[in-house]
Specification:
Layout lengths: L4 E10 L3 E4 H5 L6 H8 L3 E4 L6 H16 L8 E5 L10 H9 L5 E5 L5 H14 L5 E9 L9 H4 L4 E11 L4 E9 L7 E2 L7 E2 L1 H23 L6 E6 L4 H10 L11 H4 L6 H11 L8 E8 L3 E8 L1
Parallel strand pairs: 4-5, 4-6, 11-12
Antiparallel strand pairs: 1-7, 2-3, 6-7, 8-13, 9-10, 12-13
The chain binds coenzyme A (COA).
């Protein structure tokens, strides 16, 4: 029997309707469009309504991923939701989502790895599929960071946004596959970016900035090495959308031309665990990806956590 491969079979995305621009922020914060644009690359972000929870915005993204994959919710064996803004402490957002989708009692759990959550989740889906345990897994990154932001803190309020992205990963005997993954953490730097239970997010921006570039570079190189390919083989690098300066610095250190690095941070800000699946979806919709292309995903976030995945689309 041929080796089992883990194929990205469908992608979906959902972003809340409400747009918060930099000029909107200027009205209640001591900041400016010029400062935010030059320091972060962000022009606007999406903000969920107060009643909208992580599972609410995940639902349309998951439905679209399932429909694009041509898979019924009944055939989903596992739902993995990466989020730092769950609906409740428990039950998991994944349980709510599986119920809203009308799945047939899949394994469902939330994964807490901050902005690296989607990379961790995709890697776990790959392992579950290659072990033969499951055939179809829904991996979702969904965040309502607007609900944990201190709207009086200009150093964090301008950075984050809400949104959700989803993929269906399926067992296949074709060519598409998740080729390698690297997942790391270092809890000693927890104070760079954190959110105590029931409180608001805190960040030491400068520290986070430096650690982000170095860790994504190291993880990306390691993942490429494990996959046995080089950057020249990669069609597109999709990094976590944390800050355009972080993305540009990463590209420079890795000697990557701009057109090989995807970014949509100007319209969505940093959507944490949702940023990579949203960017993946947008790149695909914009026609930047074809079946069979090699793609490198890399992320970094609170924990600290970081990682990278190389896949054949
Ligand atoms: N508008 C205007 N001024 C602001 C501001 C804002 N929104 N936020 C901070 N400032 C001010 C600071 O108060 C400081 O003023 P001071 O010099 O009078 O003390 C000045 O700008 C410089 O602050 P600093 O934090 O040193 O700026 P920076 O160049 O490091 O940029 C970040 C700040 C947050 C944009 C940058 O550090 C960053 O992007 N870090 C990574 C954040 C990130 O990606 N987090 C998520 C990781 S998953």
């Amino acid at each position: 029997m041929a080796d089992i491969k883990a194929e990205i079979r469908g992608l979906g995305k959902h972003i809340p309707e409400r747009i918060l621009t930099n000029s909107d922020l200027e009205k209640f914060l001591d900041t400016s469009d010029e400062w935010i644009t030059t320091r972060t690359g962000i022009k606007q972000r999406r903000i969920a309504e107060e009643w909208e929870k992580a599972s609410d915005i995940a639902l349309p993204a998951a439905e679209e991923a399932l429909s694009n994959a041509g898979i019924s919710p009944k055939d989903i064996d596992a739902v993995i939701v990466a989020t730092s803004t769950p609906d409740m402490t428990f039950p998991s957002t994944a349980c709510f989502l599986a119920d809203k989708l009308n799945c047939s009692k899949p394994m469902a759990f939330d994964l807490s790895a901050a902005c690296s959550g989607f990379i961790y989740g995709l890697s776990m889906a790959d392992a579950f599929i290659k072990s033969g345990q499951y055939k179809n897994i829904l991996v979702v990154g969904t965040e309502v960071f607007s609900q944990i932001i201190d709207w009086n803190d200009r150093s964090t309020a301008v950075i984050f946004g809400d949104g959700a992205g989803a993929v269906v990963v399926s067992a296949s005997e074709g060519d598409s596959d998740i080729l390698s993954s690297v997942m790391k953490s270092d809890g000693s730097h927890w104070g760079s970016l954190y959110c105590p239970v029931g409180e608001k997010l805190r960040m030491r921006g400068r520290e986070t900035f430096k650690l982000a570039i170095k860790s994504m570079e190291t993880a990306s190189k390691k993942a490429l090495q494990k996959a046995g390919i080089t950057l020249n083989d990669i069609k597109l690098v999709i990094p976590h959308q944390a800050n355009i300066r972080i993305i540009n610095a990463l590209a420079e250190r890795m000697d990557l031309p701009n057109e090989k690095v995807y970014s949509n941070i100007h319209i969505y800000g940093n959507t944490s665990a949702a940023s990579i699946p949203i960017a993946f979806y947008d790149a695909w919709k914009e026609g930047k990806l074809d079946k069979g292309d090699y793609i490198l995903l890399t992320a970094f976030g609170g924990g600290l956590t970081w990682g990278a995945i190389v896949l054949k689309f």
